[in-house]
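U., I forgot to send this yesterday:
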Amino acid sequence: MDFNDLEKDEYIDGVILIYDLNKNTYYSNDFNSAKIGHIPASTFKIPHSLIALELNIVENENTILKWNGKKRAYKLWQQDLTFKQAFHYSCVPCYKEIANKVNVGRMNEFISKFNYGKMDVHRDNIDDFWLRGSSKINQFEQIDFLKRLYLSELPISKRTELIFKQMFIVEQSNNYILRAKTGLAITAGKYNGWYVGYLEQNNSVYFFATNISPKKSHDKYFNNKRKTLTINAFKQLGIIQ
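Result:
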């Protein structure tokens, strides 16, 4: 399927993949490219958060992650944050601290149990393997993982699942509930952006994994386009107005 806004965009290359659970049907502008793996960037905060909750490294979405007072890349991160805020603000230093508490052995054990892409985790990269290096996950794998989360098929406690699904919500209206996470990686000077999650509407659920890169240079509009292109694809499919 051609997703018009993406196909017409002269600044963006990318793929949108949407899965309708009820119809067991995928929609995409490029199914082959959707099978290509990319570093997960901050979309890894989805399984990372589940691991943190499951190991009781954080108690719940309101657990305070203290700022150590050191300068961080963004002013938004330079404060004490709740776990939910750290997730939605993509606070890299917060999740680096969590990763070190999880440790290499337990991280690899959970990734294996979750069957989450092809992560390369070892002692030297435990706190940034999701941002740089050879870790990869493709769009079909992102959706498969999210589907198993939605269907309560992951090897986690019900408590962990319920806490996370609540903090995963980014938008809620009378018409739908949207759960989503962005991701942004820079590899050899090239930007790659993710937008993954699922949208519940009445008795239907639609999973999505969008992956885009700028054709030329990265600009301030690129980050917003991850969500905009995805929502417009839903509109084109007639799923939302």
